[in-house]
Amino acid sequence: MKTFLALLFFVATSLEAAAQLELKLLEFKLSDSFEDENKKAEPARFVATIPGGGNRTEFLIDLAGSLEFMRYKSLRVSTFGEWHRKTMIPIEQHVQQLGFGVRATLWNELGNCKSCFAVDVDIAGRYSHNLILSNGPSETGIYTAYVTPYWLNKWKRGDFLRPTATNPEGTRPFAKVMQFSYVVFGGLEYMSGEQILMPNLTARAEIYPLSAIIQQLTGQYGNLVARFSYTLRENLTDEVTELDIGNLFTYGVRAQHKFSWQKSELTFGAGYDYSRGPDPIRALKTQAFGTFVIKVKLILRATRTFSP
């Protein structure tokens, strides 16, 4: 814990002092996990079956809420909570988490260039309560540090062949038929309950088929999304653990529509998700399952700036 707090202090004090402090009095995000915008958190997932005859109701819920309450130049501070409850999969999952995160963006100077290189550093700590003891420790602290490199263009970081305000047809002739975005990040994860240290390397991609064509009908890009993600993990310690540690592969397809008002957004959709492998951070055992789900993502923004 002391090492984690020292690392937070180092990141905060290494940033150049700014003349303005922007307090995000409300930027609330509802999604499936605590991920910043660059890592493209999925919408929250819900599905339930309610059988008759006194049988129990089956759930699949991935829900996270985060509140970004401060920005200081390139530093952002958030608090978050997660709830993952799955009874309709081979090995059940039920975990509740509460934590905070800090993100700093380095080398983020656009100038006059059309494409620049930048790096995000994300540090987070969380308390995790696991209600299914066979999946791992009942209580643990989880500390993560990730680095996300990306090319930053004038319009949107981590995107390629996406339409822009100045180039609505995309950057290539076939952008009318296909666009995609991507993110690659890596780092370390430490779980204090069992003193486990794990490296994490994750690659994700989203494909938007027929996006420019559908935009002519709906007025929006990205109504159809295909998403792929692969995460590599390994236990660097010799500690024996009940957690499953290994590689996680997920993919999903969904149809969605975004509703916007002022600076806020609500995205509602439905789709199919498939997962194969473990997620020790969220006490998910090694297994494979696919589910049709309802998806909701909500972003509420209200900003007020204070000058010291």
Distance between the termini: 31 Å
Overall shape: it is globular
Number of helices: 2
Total tally of structural domains: 1
Order of helices and strands: HEEEEEEEEEEHEEEE
Structural class: mainly beta
Low-confidence stretches: 1-26, 163-168
What does this structure look like?
The protein has 308 residues and is mainly beta. The protein has one domain (2-11, 23-306): monomeric porin ompg (Porin), CATH 2.40.160. It has helices at 2-14, 211-218, and strands at residues 21-31, 44-49, 58-72, 75-86, 93-106, 115-130, 139-153, 159-160, 178-191, 196-209, 224-233, 248-261, 264-276, 288-306. Strands 1, 2, 3, 4, 5, 6, 7, 8, 9, 10, 11, 12, 13 and 14 form a 14-stranded antiparallel beta sheet that branches. The two termini are 31 Å apart. Mean pLDDT is 76; it is low at 1-26 and 163-168.
Question: Could you give a short description of this structure?
Answer:
7% of the residues lie in helices and 57% in strands. The chain has helices at 2-14, 211-218, and strands at residues 21-31, 44-49, 58-72, 75-86, 93-106, 115-130, 139-153, 159-160, 178-191, 196-209, 224-233, 248-261, 264-276, 288-306.
